[in-house]
UniProtKB/TrEMBL annotation:
InterPro entries: G_AIG1, GIMA/IAN/Toc, P-loop_NTPase. It comes from Synaphobranchus kaupii (Kaup's arrowtooth eel). This is AIG1-type G domain-containing protein. Keywords: GTP-binding, Nucleotide-binding. Belongs to the TRAFAC class TrmE-Era-EngA-EngB-Septin-like GTPase superfamily. AIG1/Toc34/Toc159-like paraseptin GTPase family. IAN subfamily.
Amino acid sequence: MEASKAIEEKKAVLEENAKQRLVMVQDKRETLREIMNEAAHGFSDITMVLLGRFCAGKSSTGNTILGKTAFDTTSNTFGCVKEEGEVNGRKVTVVLTPGWHRDFSGQEGTQNIKDRIKQSESLCPSKPHAFLLVIHCDSSFTETDRRRVEEHLSVLGEEASERTLVLFTWGDKLGETTIELHIERWNELRWLVNKCGNREGTETPRTTGSAVT
């Protein structure tokens, strides 16, 4: 009985925290295209850089942003790829960076990915207006994941987090669970979203069954 009561109390706390989070971020919760418009306010062009580990859904997200099949979703990305398009009358540049391995900590491989992420800025026609940190929401988010994100974002400088939006992909996989409750269940994920100023959104794929990178 005591164990069951403790579980129910913990569940109630998580749900209440999730409600508070929704209130806190609802002014910032927009569709992906609305977020783009906000980031590009006052600019005729917009440049975005997509970051995340392997199989997070970066290529699919890039295609959604540009409104066309610009990035290959059937293979992994090992180098930075730039694609452009016009969205709502603006020229949009999207730079896709290679993903890091979730559990791989080899110094040489990790440094190689960091170097390529840093090089992504050289492909941008202007200073990136926004960094989209893409996270597959249908998975756990541990301390290892948090450290991986932090070490790879660090190569972009301290101010990068001020222009970073956490974008959760495959939102339909959560079922009836809200993204706020999902965030509250993982301390490390909550830390990350808070670090990025509670700027977060959810993207549901248009099609299923295709590989994502």
